[in-house]
Amino acid sequence: xxxxxxxxxxxxxxxxxxxxxxxxxxxxxxxxxxxxxxxxxxxxxxxxxxxxxxxxxxxxxxxxxxxxxxxxxxxxxxxxxxxxxxxxxxxxxxxxxxxxxxxxxxxxxxxxxxxxxxxxxxxxxxxxxxxxxxxxxxxxxxxxxxxxxxxxxxxxxxxxxxxxxxxxxxxxxxxxxxxxxxxxxxxxxxxxxxxxxxxxxxxxxxxxxxxxxxxxxxxxxxxxxxxxxxxxxxxxxxxxxxxxxxxxxxxxxxxxxxxxxxxxxxxxxxxxxxxxxxxxxxxxxxxxxxxxxxxxxxxxxxxxxxxxxxxxxxxxxxxxxxxxxxxxxxxxxxxxxxxxxxxx
Length: 344
Ligand SMILES: O=C(O)CCC(=O)C(=O)O
Ligand SMILES: [Fe+2]
Hints:
The protein has helices spanning 9-12, 14-22, 62-78, 91-105, 109-112, 158-184, 192-196, 265-270, 319-333, and strands spanning 36-38, 42-44, 81-85, 125-127, 142-147, 203-209, 219-224, 230-235, 241-245, 248-252, 259-263, 280-283, 290-297, 304-305, 317-318. The chain is of the alpha+beta class and 344 residues long.
């Protein structure tokens, strides 16, 4: 019994699942079969010559560089999502992280749920959704939500710490460069992100979606937008990520060779609504487990988010204020209200 790895979803939230069985079970509110696949805009980052930018003195690549930045800005405003190739995070780094991620999640539930598991802070391990008021707000998944600087506390073995740490470090520098490119198009100072975002303010979230017997009726991850500047997402080959474009849900084709970038609420506010923080969700698979890892690029709590162009669509707010409002709304309604709270 004690070696079961799956969280006790149904046992812990009996009322949510009981209510479900009383309702017509065949009235599923999302049909996976009806959802079309989409091809995300793909951006080749080799043109940014990230790693030797300072040495690129003759400027011969600047045309390519500008083109790449523009493509990113168009994708951020039309889709809020794009995928990147030649992103500079070696496949080996991703593979090692995924291996360690799987090892962590495959430990018994009772160990993962221990307060001091792996020396992580108390609320790092999350599963289900304790604030869900109905099944539509439930998430059939588990996650380790780790502030970047807490990775160094992971005590298991050096390999776990270094593999996860290396992925996070590479993701942090990729996130900063992407944010700088996207910020450039808005007229942000080149130091804006370096000044406001430190590794200590960003998070790594490793997700696991166990096979779900009610996969037509329960989400793997409920619909949401991310509360950061941007997210770097690695997903494995299983699939299930969907995004909402022009009122329609679309499935993202899984491709473990690419990284997915999505715009978060803070970039939407900073860009005065030009870049879109798009709602997304994960549809659970009935038989296969799925893994993903998201790096949330966030500013410090004190950072004030205010758009560069006027008239402003949103009132200025600090990241701390934003998070507190989100938490308050989630506690009260089971869901996040988000940026619309700050509309002028
Ligand atoms: O697992 C995925 O593909 C998406 C994860 C996600 O949206 C999140 O962790 O915020
Ligand atoms: Fe997300």
